[in-house]
Amino acid sequence: MATAAVSASIGERRPARTPVEIPVQNDLTVLPPLAREMLERLPDPLMLVNGGDRVFFANRAMRDVIGVGIERKHVSAVLRNPSVLEALARTGHSGEPSSIDFVVRVPIERHYQAFTARVSSEPSVVMLLMHDLTSIRRTEQMRVDFIANASHELRTPLAAVSGFIETLKGPARDDEEARDKFLDIMGVEAERMRRLIEDLMSLTRIELNEHVPPHGEVSVEAVVRQAAAALSPLAKADGITIVVDVTETLPNVPGERDELVQIFQNLIHNAIKYGRENGEVRITLRQQAAIGRRGPEALVIASVKDEGEGIPAEAIPRLTERFYRVDVKRSRERGGTGLGLAIVKHIVNRHNGKMQIESRPGEGSIFTITLPAVKKQADAPVMEML
Ligand SMILES: Nc1ncnc2c1ncn2[C@@H]1O[C@H](COP(=O)(O)OP(=O)(O)OP(=O)(O)O)[C@@H](O)[C@H]1O
Ligand SMILES: [Mg+2]
């Protein structure tokens, strides 16, 4: 078998200065099978182009990018990017390697860094290796957007506070009524800035810890009741009744208590903010048996339901994006920063849980959190029981 023969030759001691095997024909069968297999399996797209600018070899990853049946075609027929073609030609002539960034726009936009190197001069064979930078570029873009959004969110209340300070120093200096009003507004804006900074820090802290499993054991019912009690004055102000519906004793979940309180505070707060005035916010707690990756497990399911206007279907997948708000004005009016659900998502991930969002415009929304329960202790060994 060809492969076996190649592996055997690898084990043999090579005589010194064995000439490196290079393809002498424009035919991929001249690549030793093992080398071909290795190139074929490389996760990065790679192609070899001969002196006549024909594609000599393209591995699987390359075929995934530019399509099958490209061997023996002229390179300009399979690669349309002028700068990559130019780099290939330059490297073919001069033997100088080069590296360029380029973008493939269809079927979906992908960013690559391409390396060209001449791997043989007689006959001329040039290698094109592509490194996928799409996720790095996306992360960079997200970081830029994040900083831009955070600065924008801070700039608005800061401009308001600065404006009122100027007014209070000047025209409103002796106007007692205006002074009280402006000081109140400044208080609200300063509070908004404080909340935003607190949320940003919370998000960073949770993101840093996302891979660290939580250590405590928490009663979801106690956590929900604590969050509901903290928000009841706010609910009362809108005539909203908070109902906690639990009909059974639930198992505890492994978790950080403060983080779980944060989940339910965010969800209940949203249900109040975006719910129906004089309506109801209902939190239902249940348990469910399920088969997980490691066998049978119990799940604790908590859903927060409101009777508000609901959320348009196209907005649902975007709700956990930082700073995303369906109605920016309404959220701002209620002191929202658009970070609440992003924080919830990270906490849920850290707790190995899931969040599901269901909503129909005009019929309210249901946010359901599923958390794995603490595993029951296996029967203790006899020795320990004695
Ligand atoms: N129960 C809900 N009903 C309708 N829309 C909702 C509900 N919960 C969230 N949303 C929408 O999702 C957006 C994002 O929610 P999120 O909690 O992340 O931010 P926020 O409430 O605007 O601000 P923050 O939570 O930082 O105070 C909200 O602005 C709102 O448009
Ligand atoms: Mg919120």
Question: How would you sum up this structure in a few lines?
Answer:
With 386 residues, the protein is of the alpha+beta class. It is 44% helix and 22% strand. Mean pLDDT is 86; it is low at 1-25 and 379-386.
Give a verbal description of the structure.
- Helix content is 44%, strand content 22%.
- The chain is an alpha+beta fold and 386 residues long.
- It folds into 3 domains: 113 residues, Beta-Lactamase; 74 residues, Signal transduction histidine kinase, dimerisation/phosphotransfer (DHp) domain (Helix Hairpins, Orthogonal Bundle); 161 residues, Heat Shock Protein 90 (2-Layer Sandwich).
- The strands form 3 sheets. The chain has a 5-stranded antiparallel beta sheet with strand order 2-1-5-4-3. A 5-stranded mixed beta sheet has the order 7-9-10-12-11.
- The N and C termini lie far apart (64 Å).
- The N terminus and C terminus are likely disordered.
- Bound molecules: adenosine-5'-triphosphate and magnesium ion.
- Magnesium ion (MG) binds next to helix 9.
Instruction: Tell me how many strands there are.
Output: 12
**Known CATH architecture of the largest domain:** 2-Layer Sandwich
Strand content: 15-25%
The hetero compounds bound to this protein are: adenosine-5'-triphosphate, magnesium ion
Order of helices and strands: HHEEHHHEEEHHEHEEHEEHHEEH
Largest sheet: 5 strands, antiparallel
CATH-assigned homologous superfamily of the largest domain: Histidine kinase-like ATPase, C-terminal domain
